[in-house]
Amino acid sequence: METIILVPGIEGSCLSLGQTPVWPPTLDEIAWEGYHRISELLDPAVVATAIWAELPVWEGYSYPVYRPIMTKLDQIAGRLGASRVDFYYDWRVDLWQTTPAFTASSEMLAQRIAKAVSDGATLITLVCHSMGNLVARLVLESQKYRNADWFAKISRLICICGPHLGAAAALGHALGCEDGALGLSSDDYRQIANNPLYPAGFQCFPKPGTEVLLDTSLGQRQQNQDVYDTAVDEKYQLMPSNARAAATSWHELDFKNRPDHVTYYLIAGTGYQTSNAYLYRGTTFVQTITVDGDGTVPVFSALAGSYSGKYTMPGDHVGILGTVQLADALDEIFGLSQMRTFVMAKAGITINLNKRTFAPDEIMQLLIIPDTPTTAIRGRLTVSAVPRAGAHSGAAALDLVPYGGGLPLEYQGPEIAQISARWTAPRLPGAYVMRFEGDSHQSSEQSSVVFFVNARSKSPLLRRTP
To answer: How many helices (H) and strands (E) does the chain have?
Structure first.
């Protein structure tokens, strides 16, 4: 029997301190109040309890996180007569090195694979997202587990938006020059990343030898600042021990060591400006250099290395998990005929945003993605505000509140797979739903998009250039 193991990325597992959940944040924290439980989140006693599936926002609407791919993999497992299991883990701790305080994430995954095999699995497929790809590759490409009885049972590695060469955004969070998100400010992210107990964020830095931090005040040959050098870490207030942990884990990762019996499939999201390098003048941040990617991981990083199949498709780092295009790719990889998860009277459209948390009046990048390539789209994008729980009295439930007049959208011409657009985020903090309502296409509750506006999300230093 085949077992499909889902391995989420950083921030993708729920964490609790005793009986008290500390991650993920609540809707109020994301949209209105900000996340104020950093001390609890950094407590060494925190444990992982589940994969973060979704955050309900309004009747029928949610911030879906991993729910779409969990549902899709359940459908695939049912058609194959396989089983699906979740691998949740403490996404703060070292991916490779086990310490007296914490078991490394890769060791935890190895234990979970071993248990699946002992429970009867004859084949293992690992479906990984974001940092979860690095966790799985440490199991596969290091020499640590090669002689384990269960190792030969691993048959496939499906890599979704994997930072195989790293992601500059991880460095940006540690430097404090990336935006905050999900109620966390940029200072919150910097504090978490630089905590010496939790090097996982640093382990997503671009691999050693990558020019990702440049000091333009120096001569041309001296501009590159090696973030794995202790002197550079001290200059930019980065945690040297976390940088050493990152260098150690990168040493274990090498596509040349891919086991012959494991087939790698790489999937990249495209269509968004994605951080690739940071320019400083001395220790003063100047701007971010961007390339194409999913808003977090560049395309070149997600498609790096040795593989048996690769896919590129429009979508942001998390929103891609709910696209029809990803669902079709997974069907193909598993050798199944394509099966759409919902049927509508009109052709479907999925809306993706470059991120989910915006500052008031911030420019939003969005992709309008038809289920299949089309020569015509006609309709209107609309935004509605979600009433805040407890903000009204009376027994009658409030409906979504229309925000603005919407954005007319009409296209007719050669066949396209996506339309790029920009919109200005609302001024008021809150949770919002963006939908497409049209003569030719429409979005469903699942393919609409939920986003948040929170003044804490914007870094005052951030400037970008394509």
So the answer is: 11, 24
Burial 93-116 (b: 16+ CB within 10 A, else e): bbbbbeeeebbbbbbbbbebbbeb
Amino acid at 71: T
Q: pLDDT tens, 62-116?
A: 999 999 999 999 999 999 999 999 999 999 999 999 999 999 999 999 999 999 9
pLDDT tens digit sequence for 300-339: 999 998 788 999 999 999 999 999 999 999 999 999 987 6
Which residues, including other chains, have CB under 8 Å from residue 62's CB and lie 6 or more apart?
Answer: 54, 55, 56, 450
Beta-bridge partner residues of 270: 314
Other C-beta atoms within 10 Å of 424: how many?
12
H-only helix segments in 275-317: 299-302
Q: Return the SS3 of 229.
A: coil
Residues 6+ apart with CB under 8 A from 66: 6, 8, 12, 51, 52, 53, 54, 129, 321
Q: Are the CB atoms for 194 and 125 separated by under 8 Å? A: no
The owner of tokens 């407890």 is 390
